[in-house]
């Protein structure tokens, strides 16, 4: 139960949702888009989130799309993580999201909600960063299709009143060799320490990481270091570690030093899995 | 719009209830519908004590607004009538204090319905969503496997 009241709207079209947001915003209702809704429900209960108007986008047809058409896979933002896993149209995404929360919670948590969440893990974005996916966004200025690597800078840079409708991914990335791993501090459930997703395309390794910094990221500098074949694996990994974005997280899940130690070993695993190179 | 009168399809019955938008399904089941089988634990999606079944899938009822459940088929522990998993819990002593039991049973029941031939990996993946403070895990595993084997 949430300690405050709000109005609840279920727009059936994208336009209706955009118009509602603007109206409600003008009335000072602090409207909030709601997909799986787990963020508002869990943070609202302890007064860390507040709204007077919830706009539930789950009924909008475009947000529920899941199909391969031409050479793209289209995934709607309100698909639950379980539906994505069950359909398994993008194996790297299946593997990465299957580590978010737990199985029952993933029946509720959605793709768009995870990508846009306040929590810093947001692992669902990693495969799309690797696959140079495009996002369909709608807002007061109409529809926009933007490369995810352009608009996702630490978070999805949405303007007020905009929401994520779909993510489109070229099928060539979907069949590419991949690697995905989540390390927790202990046990097999609970929040991650570090999650890493990797993909190999055109003989180059790409990596995207969550849980290392206070945001998920993919870094060209890190990838350039890892793919510098003139050097030994150790030297490539050391260089990659030196160019990681900052700050490195330091929290109850693990110190910065421990995170970098775990990361180094994960990078060794990635190189072994995707490049066939091992350190003796 | 802050309060809604809605019809819910619950355990095969249509029930009309007036709720706040801000009520979770768990609040409505327990506070408005007199169905106290789903248990409040963490209220944060972590423990699974509140698990019910919505359209065939397990759902933590503390993570769903009751208004989101309109048009969906809800089954709570009260709606299971001598389901094989209930009997299996008794036969295998799969509980001690019993607080986590309705949630575990609803999750196991959904698993058996969706994956009648679930393998160990699937069983583990699904059941990790629930916590038993009395650590009856081995007995719960035996119970669910005994039903799956019969399939
Ligand atoms: C038990 C449990 C375990 C969890 N474990 C993890 C974990 O391992 N990793 C992790 O990353 N998170 C975890 N979380 C947090 C959870 O992932 C986030 O709360 C969740 O991803 C949000 O998804 P949702 O669909 O419920 O989003 P919502 O709550 O609907 O939305 C989240 C935020 O994004 C906005 N939003 C939603 N959809 C859109 C859209 N289409 N366009 C623009 N903005 C939008 C909302 O306004 C809100 O601010 C966990 C949560 C629970 C309850
Ligand atoms: S009370 Fe719902 S998961 Fe704990
Ligand atoms: S039997 Fe006591 S919590 Fe599970």
UniProtKB/TrEMBL annotation, chain A:
Q: What is its EC number?
A: 1.17.5.2
Which residues, if any, are the signal sequence?
none
Instruction: State the UniProt keywords alphabetically.
Output: FAD, Flavoprotein, Oxidoreductase
Q: Which stretches are transmembrane? A: none
Which Pfam families does the record match to this protein?
FAD_binding_5
Q: Does the keyword Oxidoreductase apply?
A: yes
Query: What molecular function does GO assign, one term?
Result: caffeine oxidase activity
- SUPFAM superfamilies recorded: CO dehydrogenase flavoprotein C-terminal domain-like, FAD-binding/transporter-associated domain-like
- Using the UniProt record, name the top-level EC class of this enzyme in a single word: oxidoreductase
Every copy of the FAD-binding PCMH-type domain together lies at 1-174
Its protein name is Caffeine dehydrogenase subunit beta
Automatic annotation (TrEMBL), chain B:
Question: For the 2Fe-2S ferredoxin-type domain, which residue ranges apply?
Answer: 4-80
Q: Which SUPFAM superfamilies match?
A: 2Fe-2S ferredoxin-like, CO dehydrogenase ISP C-domain like
**Top EC group:** oxidoreductase
Q: What are the recorded GO MF terms, alphabetically?
A: nicotinate dehydrogenase activity
Cite the EC number. Answer: 1.17.1.5
Highest rank taxon of the organism: Bacteria
Claim: tRNA-binding is one of the keywords in the record:
no
- The name under which this protein is listed is Nicotinate dehydrogenase small FeS subunit
Q: Any idea which UniProt keywords this protein has? A: 2Fe-2S, Iron, Iron-sulfur, Metal-binding, Oxidoreductase
Q: Which InterPro entries match?
A: 2Fe-2S-bd, 2Fe-2S-bd_dom_sf, 2Fe-2S_ferredoxin-like_sf, 2Fe-2S_ferredoxin-type, 2Fe2S_fd_BS, Beta-grasp_dom_sf, Diverse_Oxidoreductases
Under the heading PROSITE patterns, the entry gives: 2FE2S_FER_1, 2FE2S_FER_2
